[in-house]
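Margin note: ligand = NAP.
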Amino acid sequence: MRVLVTGVTGQVGGALGARLRDEATIIAADRAALDLAAPHAIPAALDRMAPDIIINPAAYTAVDEAEDERELAMRVNGKAPGAIARWAAARAVPFIHFSTDYVFDGSGTKPWREDDPARPLSTYGASKLAGENEIRAAGGCFLVIRTSWVYAAQGDNFLRTIMRLAQERKELRVVADQVGAPTSAPLIADAVANILSAGVENLRRRFAQAGGLVHLAARGETSRHGFAGAIVDGLRLRGLPLAVERITPIGAADYPARAARPRNSRLDLGRLENLFGITPPPWQEALVAELDKIAHR
Ligand SMILES: NC(=O)c1ccc[n+]([C@@H]2O[C@H](COP(=O)([O-])OP(=O)(O)OC[C@H]3O[C@@H](n4cnc5c(N)ncnc54)[C@H](OP(=O)(O)O)[C@@H]3O)[C@@H](O)[C@H]2O)c1
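Resulting structure:
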């Protein structure tokens, strides 16, 4: 089975390549092999690669910068997934794509279900929603996996930022009124491997039953402030020298950013559990695994 994985230099793409390489022939596509900023060139590139399954974690993920680069974000996150989906639908190739909790407006406190109305607050969220819509319009055998607060032991993410700041500063000020589930890239890769292990025919049936959309995150919830506290505690426990003495909770309003983030990023995991039989680990457990990797480097 030839599995095309995009975004292999990113968190999820990297974890997927590592996780699936013993079970499939991975076609690892970086930006040079498949540039999502050039959607018109995608069909010819896919013809050459001839995958049996496509997994697309590549995306324009710079949430704040997207406010100034709307056209590029829309092309990479909206138009390009549409081009991939049409190519895949025409050849009955299963297509797995990733989207985000940022398609929601973050109101309320209930976990978002897949069929709740999407009302993005930011250009990034709107571009990811545009991608979902393009894929749905293409039809075929597809699954859009919405996930949240992705991090890994390596890469550019909240964990690495908190680690760096905790080494440099005595006080960290971290937003306490945004709640969600930090989700490690390896957790996502494990779930995708589990989904693929059902075999292609089961996969078609389950994707259809899911209406092509499922939420995937670690179990449980915390605030950004709670996540930062767990990171610092975990690093200290592993003997890393840290300068930080206080982690002060602040409101999102005290930390102005170009793009608004949802206050409530909780994702309901019922469909994942009921249709795919996957119960993800609690976020604290997945964090331990990533902190251990950092400590053992
Ligand atoms: N990060 C989060 O907190 C989060 C939360 C919810 C959902 N998601 C979604 O989950 C998926 C994976 O996210 P991630 O955190 O793994 O992203 P990431 O670490 O930021 O990696 C993004 C990847 O996309 C590639 N890419 C960017 N522009 C491209 C282009 N024009 N053509 C080809 N490749 C391009 C990057 O390549 P280069 O290295 O060349 O730039 C990189 O490999 C994305 O769909 C994202 O929207 C992420």
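The chain has a mean pLDDT of 97.
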